[in-house]
């Protein structure tokens, strides 16, 4: 029975699918540590539970692996620059929304100091940036499936919120008219 499980193509697919799902979740949360350990555990599972042998493939194809790595990392760097810019834009919009009500308090006697301290710094986001570089395919998928869909929904809501509010106002007006007539 154990031999049937370890030599089954289905087992390879199940282990691979579980690994990919866990990597997607880790990348969606920008967690390099979780993604790294899911990779190690997933590769070990493929190595020891199934007939797949990822380590042997790497050792027998070092040139192909090196070429792939040389192409993979620059794409990850580009992706991390995009994600960093999107994060800065999101945080800048949040900080700009606070400007009208901001008052100098404590360590922040000037607005510029508050802005500088409120925006994320690269040094405080090292794990996030490394995750974007090294696990960029999963980060791209998470962005497209989660962040981009949310942004599109938010944009649609913003464009239609006036329409929704005018519908509320019409209902209120129609109900108010009924009460005033009695």
What is the H/E string? Answer: HHHHHHHH
- Gyration radius, rounded: 25 Å
**Biggest sheet statistics:** none
Strand content: under 5%
Helix coverage percent of residues? over 70%
Low-confidence stretches: none
Silhouette: flat
- Alpha-carbon distance between the termini? 81 Å
Mean model confidence by pLDDT: 86
Query: Which structural class do you get from the secondary structure elements?
Result: mainly alpha
Helix segment count? 8
Give the strand tally.
0
Describe what is shown at a glance.
The protein contains 8 helices and no strands. The chain is mainly alpha-helical and 182 residues long.
Q: Which SSEs are present, and which pair or pack?
A:
Layout: H1 2-6, H2 9-28, H3 32-49, H4 54-60, H5 62-98, H6 111-118, H7 126-134, H8 136-181
Task: Please give a structural write-up.
- The protein is mainly alpha-helical.
- Helix content is 82%, strand content 0%.
- The longest helix is centred in the last third of the chain and has 46 residues, at 136-181.
């Amino acid at each position: 029975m154990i031999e049937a499980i370890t030599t089954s193509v289905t087992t390879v697919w199940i282990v691979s699918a579980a690994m990919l799902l866990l990597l997607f979740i880790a990348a969606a949360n920008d967690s390099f540590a979780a993604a790294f350990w899911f990779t190690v555990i997933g590769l070990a599972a493929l190595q020891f539970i199934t007939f797949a042998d990822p380590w042997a493939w790497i050792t027998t194809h070092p040139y192909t692996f090196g070429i792939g790595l040389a192409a993979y990392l620059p794409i990850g760097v580009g992706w991390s620059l995009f994600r960093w810019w999107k994060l800065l834009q999101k945080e800048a919009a949040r900080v700009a929304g606070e400007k009208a009500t901001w008052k100098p308090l404590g360590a922040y006697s000037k607005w510029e100091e508050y802005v500088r301290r409120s925006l994320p710094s690269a040094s405080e986001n090292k794990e996030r940036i490394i995750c974007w570089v090294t696990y960029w395919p999963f980060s791209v998928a998470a962005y497209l499936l989660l962040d981009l869909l949310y942004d599109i929904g938010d944009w649609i809501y913003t464009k239609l919120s006036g329409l929704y509010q005018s519908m509320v106002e019409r209902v209120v007006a129609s109900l108010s008219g009924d009460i005033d007539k009695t």
